[in-house]
Design a protein that fits this description.
By secondary structure, this protein is α+β, with helices and mostly antiparallel strands. Helix content is 28%, strand content 24%.
Length: 1186
């Protein structure tokens, strides 16, 4: 490889793109928490939003009017104790209040996603002006949680707050003071909910329960309470009608029910309601992810649909750790806070094994201790707590053991209990050996790491001087296991010996060690995370610490080695961050701030090694793509580089400064499978690696569609194909099958069970499918069966007039049998006078019968003409597939999935060629941002007519003359001196475009500026220019080397170029409907001293119409519409950034401009760069967000 293609992008201080930055780790999925079941007032609605509470966070959903569906808008997480109530402000739909068990009340602004105020009382503080703790509790440590709160509908500041035991207070949120207090009538009563009485200002009602009769944990909050009275201004009207109810369920599910239509407008599956401590992918299925939570359950999620498919029975106490059985055994081992360890059969849904210890008391053996402390004298979550013998009521922590009042007996038994409490007082980690499926390791607060067989036989008991928090089996030696201990040390044990002493003890951490992880690729290398905030890398063979990773500001919990890149390590911490490390030199490659609380678990699957899952105390599971960290690898595959540039051994990969190489088993398996095949392997190679690199949620489905388009036999499609997006030729077949299944379903004697669809609901669904398939007659018959005649008759003419008449006659016969007067219009409409006369005569209405007969004789009632023309038809065209190809490619490009777009486009071939070439050009621009110019050349070489793209690349290349000439030679272009001579010759001939091109390639590229700018200005002054006629010139000029553009002698031309690019870019943005950046682009073109815009005059409107005519149609089909990258709609807990373009909060990924402070959304950055290559800051530096 020539050194000319590996130099840094810029050698000057004006680095064209290197100073802008964005996160390398992309959030691609979110599993939201469920709604907590133990408080009452924890769901509310206002306008087109509704909210519910998990234990520590408030989830805000908002109606997306474009798709008429509710989407997660924000997650509010500031409370440190359980949230007990929320209430929306009736006067401001952007403001709501939340309260927690520590009497903290927070006022939130939903639109800005930030805290407006905190109404708190720090115990003993003298500078607090307000009192939220009841006066009777001031100066004490007693807790009295807030159970309900409601805004006063007649005041913007007053808030009604109820505490569990000490009455109700009216609080002024503005002055932060308590106005008045209302006492309970009985000491036994407690307020669970309250509401203002709208018809009686100042009056409110409460819902209370005696402590002897707790209420049920099912509750609703009607949005009708949020509908404003008629006296409010129109802009305070709310979209959600009073007939909607927010419902929260015991299993954590949340729904929005339309009581009028009797249907769910929104229904979210069950979710965890508490801290999620661990997450693990199923070894033989990368689509299934298991999570373990403080709420006592394990849930298994399908990460393609982000829905729970299995849930454990629950009631296990806190589940700290889980481990899948190796292979396809479909079992999960779990470690709990109180019930020891267990094995759960996921498919059968039951616990099949529990690991318990026998308790010895003197000469007597019993199977449980006489009493168990509620908590120990330390807490693995961090905060110190006191042991208590009689725990308070808690739905998650109820002891099932018998209670003893003899404290002396308990005190005398403590020593015995300490010897045998493994499995009864906190299993912090459980690990199933994947080298020997019969062995499971557990570690506990009793200081033991115990190795068992799956049937419970204890093989080894390794005693530690303090609690053991983590253990991990070596992936290279089935008999080696490492542990992390509270005594700050890491130990390595060898099971093949009978010794209970460790082979190695690694010291160096200054606080307790939690998790330990062996490297899957580097034998003898392991890492440990500690409460000292560091991660240490240990080399077992050298008996030494080889690196210390510092950066976290709180204890480290989650640890994960990447199974393909041997030096890549990810850690999660109580500082709410995830850090990605290069362990070769200790560099932190990226820091992710999106979680709203402690990060506990990190995991990925070897078959999809660059998709990571994380879990947190914020009760969410988030999915991440790590592919930006190893981008050159994907481009190496696309450009068909040799295998040595893609797959390597560990020794090569861990060399300092070496590019990333795949070293795992899965990548080697792909290579071996490809080498076994013959013929054209490019399509399979692109597909297999694309699925390997891409996050879940559609990549496999996309490739199935590509296979169908390329003519693959339908029998080769996977079984779950019909669950995703289907090709049009399959849509009718699969939907018809679904309709038939719904129609013929046999309901059992007792129905389908609670929550199962009724027969009527199934028939309605089937009918809707038939209607969408154009099978109108089948739809009509199902509507008749459901008794919905009007719907059937309204569309029956679409079958034929003959069928409509028959249906009308059937309806008339039915109404006659019911003696219903509604039969009259039916008989008149079909001209069945005889039937109508008989109907009236039978009822003694002779005058009515005579009147109808006479009208018929006079011709006023006539038979409608018959038509045998069927209303059903099938439409289609030969170009449908081509159009869909282009549309799919455009959507991939607009989502910045450039590598995937190129892979798909390459396989599709000619039908997607234009979009593929555009994606190649954008990806080449991305390579110009880093030291991968050789890859940019290779990408552009894949475009058949690539001369102009290669000219732009060479023009922007910042190397010395010799390096530039080397690049010119590779691109089949003249050297810089020859380009100078050609430019002067061509300029004399009057070819402006070629003159600009060769000047840019010459030793004096700045000479292109006056030539090109003057030409564009002349064009704009004319009357026949179009957007496409001037954009090509400006786009070419924009590739002038940044250091040349920054020369003082070029300042005037630079300013003109930036203004012209902004103006023309705005027109191009209008054509592509990049509406969010159009105002900023025009602002970019105005001189600083120009007055703000005023409403357009008639002449300005006329000028705008002329401009629109010059814009013309977008040649790239499907490129019209805003860009939307993966994760754009996912809420984050990151610092709220405001866009310097729009002034609005940035939703989704953020892109920082070259000053390191100004930020815009990644979506806006991508759209801006596609229409105007220069930074919005006006510095002349090119923008490269690709």
């Amino acid at each position: 490889m020539s050194p000319a293609y590996t130099v840094p992008l810029m050698k000057t201080t004006h680095s064209g793109v290197g100073q802008a930055k964005m996160s390398h780790v992309k959030q691609v999925g979110l599993l939201a928490a469920g709604c907590q079941p133990w408080n009452k007032d924890i769901c509310a609605a206002s306008g087109d939003r509704f909210a519910y509470c998990a234990t520590l966070a408030v989830y805000i959903y908002q109606l997306d009017h474009r798709y008429n569906e509710f989407k997660l808008h924000a997650i509010m997480s500031e409370h440190k104790k359980t949230i007990t109530a929320i209430s929306w402000c009736p006067h401001n739909p952007d403001v709501f209040a939340s309260a927690s068990a520590d009497s903290l009340v927070i006022i939130w602004n939903v639109n800005e996603q930030k805290v407006v105020a905190k109404l708190d009382n720090t115990k003993g503080s003298k500078n607090q002006k307000h009192v939220l703790r009841p006066e009777s509790l001031e100066g004490t440590d007693e807790e009295d949680p807030v159970t309900a709160l409601e805004w006063d509908p007649l005041s913007t500041d007053y808030l009604l707050v109820a505490n569990l035991h000490n009455g109700i207070r009216l609080v002024d949120s503005e002055s932060l003071s308590c106005i008045t207090t209302f006492s309970f009538p009985s000491a036994a009563a407690s307020v669970q909910c309250l509401a203002w009485v709208s018809s009686a200002p100042g009056m409110f009602i409460t819902g209370a329960c005696s402590s002897q009769y707790p209420t049920k944990n099912h509750h609703t909050s009607s949005t009708s309470e949020a509908v404003p009275p008629p006296t409010l201004t129109p802009n305070q009207a709310f979209s959600l009608p009073p007939g909607h109810t927010v419902c929260c369920f015991m299993d954590g599910g949340v729904g929005l029910y339309d009581m009028g239509a009797k249907k769910w407008d929104f229904l979210r599956d069950l979710g965890h309601v508490e801290t999620i401590f661990d997450c693990k992918f199923k070894p033989d299925n990368p689509d299934l992810l298991a999570t373990a939570s403080f709420d006592g359950t394990i849930k298994v999620w399908d990460i393609n649909t982000l829905s729970a498919v299995y849930t454990s029975p629950g009631n296990e106490g806190v589940i700290y750790s889980i481990s899948w059985a190796p292979g396809n055994l479909n079992c999960i081992a779990g470690g709990t806070s109180r019930n020891g360890a267990f094995i759960w059969d996921v498919r059968k849904g039951k616990m099949i094994t529990r690991f318990t210890e026998y308790w010895t008391l003197g000469a007597t053996t019993i199977d449980r201790p006489p009493i168990r402390p509620y908590v120990t004298d330390y807490n693995p979550l961090g905060s110190a707590v006191k042991p208590v013998l009689n725990p308070p009521h808690c739905p998650l922590m109820q002891s099932t053991l018998p209670e003893f009042d003899n404290e002396d007996f308990v005190r005398n038994s403590v020593e015995i209990l300490a010897e045998v409490k493994h499995g009864k007082n906190g299993i912090f980690c459980i690990a199933w050996s994947h080298k020997d499926s019969k062995r499971i390791a557990t570690c506990s607060s009793d200081g033991f790491c115990i190795i068992r067989t799956i049937d419970g036989n204890v093989l080894h008991k390794y005693k530690h001087p303090a609690a053991v928090f983590g253990c991990d089996w070596s992936q290279n030696n089935k008999d080696m296991i490492a542990t992390g201990c509270e005594d700050k040390n890491v130990r390595v044990y060898y099971l093949a010996t009978s010794s209970d002493q460790p082979l190695k003890v690694f010291t160096g951490h200054t606080a307790k060690v939690f998790h330990v992880r062996w490297s899957p690729l580097r034998e003898g290398i392991l890492c440990s995370g500690s409460d000292d905030g560091t991660v240490r890398i240990w080399d077992y063979t050298q008996d030494a610490c080889i690196n210390v990773l510092s950066g976290h500001t709180a204890p480290v919990r989650g640890l994960m080695w990447n199974p393909e890149i041997p030096y890549l390590l990810i850690s999660g911490s109580w500082d709410y961050t995830i850090r990605v490390w290069d362990t070769r030199d200790g560099t932190c490659l990226d820091t992710v701030y999106d979680h709203g609380a402690d990060v506990y678990g990190l995991t990925c699957h070897p078959s999809r090694p660059f998709t990571m899952a994380s879990c947190s105390r914020d009760s969410t599971v988030r999915l991440w793509s790590l592919t930006p960290l190893i981008n050159p690898l994907q481009i190496n595959i696309i450009t068909e580089r040799c295998w040595d540039d893609i797959i390597g051994n560990t020794d090569r990969a861990v060399e300092s400064g070496a590019p990333p190489l795949l070293c795992g088993k899965v990548s080697r398996d792909i290579k071996q499978e490809l080498e076994k095949l013959s013929g054209n392997l490019r399509g399979k190679k692109l597909r297999w690696f694309s699925e390997y690199f891409s996050p879940p949620g559609g990549s496999k489905n996309l490739w199935d569609l590509v296979a169908v388009i390329k003519g693959q036999d339908d029998s080769l499609l996977p079984q779950n194909y019909c669950k995703g997006i289907m090709h049009m030729k399959h849509l009718i077949r699969f939907r018809l099958s679904k309709a038939q299944e719904l129609t013929t379903v046999k309901m059992s004697k007792f129905g389908g069970g609670i929550g199962a669809p009724s027969k009527e609901e199934r028939l309605k669904e089937a009918a809707e499918i038939h209607l969408r398939l154009g099978q109108i007659q089948r739809y009509c018959e199902l509507m008749v069966e459901l008794g919905e005649w009007d719907k059937a008759l309204s569309v029956a003419p679409g079958v034929s007039m003959k069928y409509w008449r028959k249906l009308m006659q059937r309806r008339a016969d039915q109404l006659i049998q019911e003696e219903n007067d509604d039969v009259i219009p039916y008989c008149i409409a079909i001209g069945d006078v005889k039937k109508l006369v008989s109907f009236f005569t039978s009822r003694g209405q002779l005058k009515e019968a005579l009147l109808v007969a006479q009208a018929a004789c006079e011709g006023n009632i006539q038979m409608l003409p018959l038509s045998t023309t069927s209303g059903t038809s099938n439409s289609g065209g030969n170009n449908t597939d081509d159009y869909n190809d282009k549309l799919a490619m455009a959507n991939l490009i607009r989502g910045n999935e450039l590598e995937l777009a190129i892979s798909v486009g390459t396989v599709l071939g000619e039908s997607a060629a234009h979009a593929t070439h555009y994606a190649l050009e954008l990806l080449a621009r991305k390579c110009m941002a880093v030291i991968t110019w050789d890859l940019a050349v290779d990408l552009l070489m894949m475009i058949p007519d690539n001369k102009l793209q290669l000219v732009k690349l060479c023009a922007f290349y910042p190397g010395c003359i010799a390096e530039i000439n080397d690049l010119h030679e590779k691109c089949n272009l003249p050297d810089v001196e020859e380009c100078m001579r050609l430019a002067e010759t061509i300029q004399a001939d009057g070819d402006i475009f070629e003159t600009i091109k060769y000047y840019l390639l010459s030793t004096e590229p700045e000479k292109a500026l006056p030539v090109g700018i003057q030409y564009v200005k002349e064009q704009l002054c004319g009357s026949d220019w179009t957007l496409d006629s001037v954009f090509s010139y400006l786009d070419l000029l924009s590739y002038i080397r940044t250091e040349q553009l920054m020369l003082p002698k070029c300042s005037e031309f630079r300013n003109e170029l930036l203004i012209l690019c902004g103006y023309v870019g705005a027109l191009l943005a209008i054509r592509r409907q990049y509406n969010s950046i159009v105002p900023a682009l025009y602002e970019y073109t105005r001189p600083p001293d120009e007055l703000p815009c005023t409403p357009p005059s008639e002449s300005q409107r006329a000028l705008y119409s002329v401009l629109v005519s010059r814009i013309q149609e977008e040649p790239l089909k499907g490129m019209v519409g805003p860009d939307c990258v993966t994760g754009s709609n996912l809420p984050s807990h990151s610092d709220v950034h405001t866009s310097c373009l729009t002034g609005l909060k940035i939703q989704g990924p953020v892109f920082f401009l070259e000053d390191g402070k100004s930020a815009i959304s990644l979506n806006d950055a991508l759209m801006w760069a596609k229409v105007n290559p220069f930074s919005p800051l006006g510095t002349g530096i090119r923008l490269n967000p690709f």
